[in-house]
Amino acid sequence: MRAALHTAPNEPMRIEELADPQPRAGEVAIEVHSCGACHTDLHVLKGELPFPAPAVLGHEVAGVVGEVGAGVTGIAPGDRVVTSFIMPCGRCAQCTRGNEEICQEFFTYNRGRGRLYDDETRLFRPNGEPVWMYSMGGLAQRCVTPATSVYRVPDGVELADVASVGCSTMTAYGALRHAGQVQVGDTVAVVAAGGVGSALIQLAALFGAATIIAVDIEQDKLDAARGLGATHVINSAETDAAEAVREITGGRGVDVAFEALGSVPTFGIARDSVVEGGRVVVVGIAPRGTSAEFDLATIARRKLQITGSYGAKPRRDMPVLLDLVGRGLLRPQDAITRRYPFAQVQDAYDALRAGETIGRAVVDMPG
């Protein structure tokens, strides 16, 4: 098969031939139809998140099941599926407590070593050299992943439309539902209207938020945010965003502010935009070692809640999201603004690095 290999920080990915990966017990092989271009991949490409190389990145996969390993039930060859970027082991202490989004095996084996849960990769060059996997390694014609991260796409839904459900949409849902606890009538600010920010805006509207304020430095992203459900937009390059949020909310601030980029300035806007007793949810993945400041007395006096959110709970939440997609209530395709053929996979990430991508970009694989 052909795959896009990351070989060193800040070097372009290159397309190479790899051996077809084979599923082992409890795993599924997927013929990849499309894969979303995620900012977290970009952190690895830039060397901001340590990860072994050579590696295949890509973790927003839509495709067709090609083969299943021993013991897999409920999924069969020919099924149209999407994957969740979190691949819960289902047996560690966090998974058994219902905290699949912080699965210990996932972080130890996959994020730490680029492997699956027998401590081995499924990817190899023709000479037998191992190639490491970021999640399932979806920037390839075929990938292998634990069955716990594979979900059927509803009938009538195009595969080309749903790759991003497994990361940006699932990340947004986890932040809104579990960390932010957004309820009907709440006021919400989304700071950074990129891929995850776009999904946060869509879902906040679906959750019934009364006021949804999008904050960004790019006017074209703010214009797109209105189309996804933002009731107000603020260009933080032109105005004091936190002050503008308070003006919109009658001086009180929002109930929940989501930081969706992973930077000190966007965290500061989110922190300063919430009402007393409000929640600041950090969703964006910052480069390792990034530190932000906050006044401890202010947190105590204003009873602020600052929490992180890495994603949703795959086995509980992915079926909910896909049901919403199947009923037409959630339209992830509305946030897709760019599509790239596999031969131009590096262009997708160059555009992401340059801040040119509005919403989500998708890489389409050759058949």
Give the gist of this structure:
The protein is of the alpha/beta class and 367 residues long. 28% of the residues lie in helices and 25% in strands.
How does this model look, in words?
This protein has 2 domains: 220 residues, Medium-chain alcohol dehydrogenases, catalytic domain (Quinone Oxidoreductase, Chain A, domain 1), CATH 3.90.180.10; 128 residues, NAD(P)-binding Rossmann-like Domain (Rossmann fold, 3-Layer(aba) Sandwich). It starts with a strand and ends with a strand. The chain has 11 helices and 18 strands. Strands 3, 5, 6, 9, 10, 17 and 18 form a 7-stranded mixed sheet that branches. Strands 13-12-11-14-15-16 form a 6-stranded parallel sheet, sandwiched between helices. Strands 4-8-7 form a 3-stranded mixed sheet, with no helix packed on it. The mean pLDDT is 96. The longest helix has 13 residues.
Feature tags:
seven-stranded mixed β-sheet, Rossmann fold, Quinone Oxidoreductase, Chain A, domain 1, 11 helices, 18 strands, ADH_Zn_CS, six-stranded parallel β-sheet
**Helix count, DSSP H or I runs of 4 or more residues:** 11
Q: What separation lies between the terminal Cα atoms?
A: 11 Å
Q: Averaging pLDDT over every residue, what do you get?
A: 96
Poorly predicted regions: none
Give the CA-based shape: globular
Q: How many individual β-strands?
A: 18
The CATH homologous superfamily of the largest domain is named: Medium-chain alcohol dehydrogenases, catalytic domain
Oligomer: single chain
Largest sheet: 7 strands, mixed
Output the CATH class name of the largest domain. Alpha Beta
| SSE string | EEEHEEEHHEEEEHEHEHEHEHEHEHEHE
Please estimate the helix content: 25-40%
Residues in β-strands, percent: 25-35%
User: What is the second-level CATH architecture of the largest domain?
Assistant: Alpha-Beta Complex
Rounded Rg: 20 Å
CATH T-level topology of the largest domain: Quinone Oxidoreductase, Chain A, domain 1
- Secondary-structure-derived class: alpha/beta
| Domains (count) | 2
Domain Enoyl reductase (ER): 8-363
Organism: Saccharopolyspora montiporae
Keywords: Metal-binding, Oxidoreductase, Zinc
Protein name: Zinc-binding dehydrogenase
